[in-house]
Write a structure and sequence with these properties.
Blueprint: E1 16-19, E2 24-27, H1 40-44, H2 50-61, H3 67-79, H4 82-110, H5 112-135, H6 140-149, H7 156-167, H8 172-203, H9 208-225, H10 249-276, H11 282-302, H12 310-324, H13 326-334, H14 338-349, H15 352-366, H16 372-400, H17 403-406, H18 408-421, H19 430-441
Antiparallel strand pairs: 1-2
Length: 442
């Protein structure tokens, strides 16, 4: 098959050529007479098929912020044990760490629609089985088995980013905007998901959150995978090396692990701080403000033109995150005011999305093209592992030291992430090499 020209950035807006699984799609971004050039996000969604797969992506992604909260509320509310609820969700997290990269590898090898749909069906059956086991008072061990089955849930965020990487390959600026949008979508879903889950479980019945999450996941995944024209093509099977053996990936996954510890510890300590002030319900508002600030910063970050390679920008982003994470620690030590803590969390959240966008961009550059979804799933797995570790350490700090001292844990974790990012990521940059090859060819 002959090489297809890649898009080249020039001073004058030119048509963007994107390759789909079957056809060559040309989208003219040149401004019409009297019109201004469309903004970066509007440009993304002028590409045919992107609006449809994004709609499915958002519907399927919302349950990611619902399932764990729904499971805890459902199990604790019916069995009267938060310890059992926590153990069940922890088991699901451990199963996900093992199964998710394997599912992602199958998706890269056989295509998104072919693997994601049956994997989602199995995960939905696991959620329904958990619901029935809780409702009919089945033995405790059945809860662990049912929730472990949900580990086959595909990484919808990774699949969406893989589609953007395919459609926008060679256009680093547009890919930066797409990654920023995806990170903002993550923040939005993890902000709204727990609220929706708590509302459904509290106002309807304990199983309502899990049931709604399963329906949304299946509906969104079917809509997403139905968009075949934007799906990355599946090439011939090649013995490419695992993303874990790609230059810089182990170091980058360690940075993701430390960043996840920032998120996990911040959540636990903030809940404890609000509880100590006699307002546990305020914790949701506080964490929601942090997520909202992160999402807004991510969208703004996407409108900026990135300067320099991602490996050079990442330490600066990590340094900003480590610095701003000190603000909640300072606010908690100076005053017990929830308003002061809210302002500190709002500012701290502004560094989160830019850091994650830059780290994901670097991951895309370092991961073999035919194993991109696997690489991004490994990043999500590292984040989840970090969240679990951060939650445990944050809880220990609150109980053994003090609530205010607990805010030192996310600061320490962010500092560790900064230290890891300061090292060299080494090796070739896949995107840069691709663009250089394209220029040489043409």
């Amino acid at each position: 098959m002959p090489d297809i020209p890649q898009p080249l950035r020039t001073a004058t807006p030119q048509p963007l050529h994107t390759v789909t699984a079957d056809t060559l799609v040309t989208v003219d971004f040149s401004p019409r007479s009297g019109d201004r050039r469309p903004g970066p996000y509007r440009r993304l969604f002028t590409i045919p098929g992107t609006r449809a797969f994004t709609a499915g992506n958002l519907i399927a992604r919302l349950p990611m912020g619902m399932f764990s909260v729904s499971a805890v509320v459902m199990i604790a509310g019916t069995r009267g044990s938060y310890a059992l609820a926590g153990a069940v969700t922890a088991t699901g997290l451990a199963a996900t760490a093992v199964v998710a990269p394997w599912v992602a590898r199958l998706i890269d090898r056989h295509g998104q629609a072919r693997i994601a749909v049956p994997a989602t069906l199995l995960a939905v059956l696991g959620s329904l089985a958990l619901l029935l086991c809780v409702h009919y008072d089945a033995p405790d061990w059945t809860l662990f088995a049912a929730y472990a089955a949900t580990a086959t849930t595909p990484n919808i965020g990774g699949m969406s980013r893989a589609r953007w990487a395919h459609l926008l390959r060679g256009d680093a600026e547009a890919l930066h905007t797409a990654n920023s949008f995806e990170q903002a979508a993550d923040e939005l879903c993890f902000m709204l998901g727990p609220v929706l889950a708590a509302l459904l479980c509290g106002s309807l019945f304990p199983e309502a959150g899990t049931l709604a999450g399963a329906v949304l996941l299946l509906t969104g995944m079917l809509l997403f995978t139905a968009q075949r024209s934007t799906q990355p093509p599946v090439g011939p099977l090649r013995k490419t090396r695992s993303p874990l053996r790609s230059p810089g990936i182990p170091r980058l996954l360690t940075a993701f692990l430390a960043t996840g510890a920032v998120f996990g510890s911040m959540e636990v300590v903030t809940i404890a701080f609000a509880d100590a002030q006699g307002s546990r319900t305020a914790a949701g508002v506080l964490l929601g403000l942090q997520a909202a600030a992160s999402g807004a910063a991510g969208l703004l970050f996407g409108t900026l033109r990135p300067t320099g390679p991602a490996e050079r920008r990442l330490p600066w982003c990590m340094a900003a995150m480590a610095s701003l994470m000190a603000l909640p620690l300072l606010a908690a030590n100076l005053t017990p005011s929830l308003v002061a803590l809210a302002a500190a969390l709002l500012l701290a959240g502004m560094a989160t999305a830019p850091t994650m966008v830059t780290a994901m961009t670097l991951l895309q550059h370092r991961t073999p093209a035919d194993r991109l979804n696997e690489g991004m799933t490994l990043a999500v797995t590292a984040l989840l592992g970090g969240i679990a570790c951060g939650s445990a350490v944050g809880g220990w700090a609150v109980e053994q030291l003090s609530v205010t001292a607990g805010y030192g844990v996310p600061v320490a974790a962010a500092t560790l992430a900064l230290a890891v990012s300061l090292g060299s990521f080494g090796g070739p940059n896949r995107l840069t090499d691709s663009r250089a090859s394209s220029r040489t060819t043409h």
